Hints:
By secondary structure, this protein is α/β, with parallel strands linked by helices.
Amino acid sequence: MSVREQYSVAIIEPSRIVSEGLSAILHDSDFRVVRQFETVDDFNQWEAALPEEKRVDIVLLNPVLLGTHPSQPLNGLFPDACSSLVAMLYSYIPPELLLEFDATIGIDDAPTTIIEKLRDAVATAAKRLDCQNIDKQELTKREKEILAYVVKGLTNKEIGEKLCISIHTVISHRKNIVHKTGIKTVSGLLMYALFNDIVTADEIPQE
């Protein structure tokens, strides 16, 4: 018997009944709920502490929670493009708020329908990531500033203080840098920064 691949799932939903119900539906499928959160901020704090290879494959989100971030696009709230974003609907949500989600599941959907929609969402996210890896984008001015501070050894907190931005914004930019360059290690980013004249060798502290 072959081992079935499992996809990791995080649920962001204030109702524990809803979260537990979804967890029960997914229990015997190829999706594994690894954590439940009540707010977007709680999820982001947890995810920011994880190495990239440990981040979840799917984020199930109650879109009502986006009311606490009315002007923030989803790619700003969830900058990790590896994750597929799926909306959980059991009340009316304006259609324009759902455009950035990879899929939606409804309270009336059968368990088999929910699982198929999640599989489709994983495939959509994988295609998006492939396109991003093929078409590397140039770093923005702000991303170059942050990259320079990273390779100089500053922490996220120190970078935020220097640029007068939040730690969450610093983390978002750092994720974008990783996705655009395809480089995950600080040593690799240092070589990239030197090669692209973002920093000079004299600016790098000697250990």
